[in-house]
Amino acid sequence: xxxxxxxxxxxxxxxxxxxxxxxxxxxxxxxxxxxxxxxxxxxxxxxxxxxxxxxxxxxxxxxxxxxxxxxxxxxxxxxxxxxxxxxxxxxxxxxxxxxxxxxxxxxxxxxxxxxxxxxxxxxxxxxxxxxxxxxxxxxxxxxxxxxxxxxxxxxxxxxxxxxxxxxxxxxxxxxxxxxxxxxxxxxxxxxxxxxxxxxxxxxxxxxxxxxxxxxxxxxxxxxxxxxxxxxxxxxxxxxxxxxxxxxxxxxxxxxxxxxxxxxxxxxxxxxxxxxxxxxxxxxxxxxxxxxxxxxxxxxxxxxxxxxxxxxxxxxxxxxxxxxxxxxxxxxxxxxxxxxxxxxxxxxxxxxxxxxxxxxxxxxxxxxxxxxxxxxxxxxxxxxxxxxxxxxxxxxxxxxxxxxxxxxxxxxxxxxxxxxxxxxxxxxxxxxxxxxxxxxxxxxxxxxxxxxxxxxxxxxxxxxxxxxxxxxxxxxxxxxxxxxxxxxxxxxxxxxxxxxxxxxxxxxxxxxxxxxxxxxxxxxx
Length: 524
Description:
Number of helices: 14
Largest sheet: 12 strands, mixed
Structural class: alpha+beta
Oligomer: single chain
Helix content: 25-40%
Shape: globular
């Protein structure tokens, strides 16, 4: 995903090629089955995702996979353009903000249709945002900043903050853990109906086979030219079929064989084959796609001891981990700053804690912290190849420092489920995109996300950072937040990496993005 470096995240290319009938038959047998389509010109796209989404409720999970799929069904009040500026989507214009920075007056676009056939109103928005603040980890964090939320007539929404909160509009715009606007009458826990305003509507889900979305013929598009997630959206492809393909090699083979129109997050070792495919596929590498990070359980278990978390941090060599995860040096950079040079949030604060790879120091610190050989339970997945490879190397680094390691390898949906239970893990491996607003990721900077980081130093640093609206002053304040992260070790930022995916030549006008989207794309 993209970030302060304004990273655009994913697309890559893979072409439809003719293989021998026997090879194709063998390949198809290994790939997820798909519903048959009538013969003739096709207008559907098959999109290979890294896993089965654990939910289709865009508020219930911060998993990128959920946001990637459901951003086609649900929209937000605001979104990001190609340069990561916040722009209006369901809102008519940017909000009117009071002089004290606390009151946001938002006017909705008139005539926006919901998938159930009626027009969107302020009551739908209020009910949606209330549900988001009740259920989403991001929404809960924002909810603590809000004094009141109310409808002002059929198309007016007023948000009153307890104090100025600079990240508000960025939080409302993010597809991950989305502040999705849905029909008031569909609001439920859990969601039984997926009724949004997006260019696609939900049609069917067959677990472990596909999620099928179809064009919403009454979609109300914006008039501005398309830019990033902003501007005009058109469902030019009639059906989108998101297929879970957890095995990375299967995604590569399917992309090369023309089985998929898009294959997400391919292993870096596939690049030479993609490059030498003779035009059957064209790889695209997206710089600063995101950053892998390790979340530590500050609530229960061995990692709840801050001194022990510091010992773990001392044992790790993030450079080695990145090399294990990505191999090719074109795909990663090991640096302590959470945001790249050129970003207003670039900071070297805490850099001496990064990439220490000091087994002796870690062993001594662990002994002083009272470590008695308890297993450190590492939760990881093979769905993201680099997660697993980094985990193997990390386990060896920890063992060299005298730690006992219990590596729990599960599928991604299980990991996302288990990380919510503090009794089941001590470290889990994940990654995030890089964005222009630090509060967007990782969710551990908010409240209530797995890891459950909460401390006076965190509260003080983030309070000062979030109240300040001057971008220049916020840059310096972020350095103080980064310092606290390195000292309290709620998570460990491993470094930065570039993304590799693939698309078929049949998929036309696809625009690379952090969360891949397929409105405005076409099937040639």
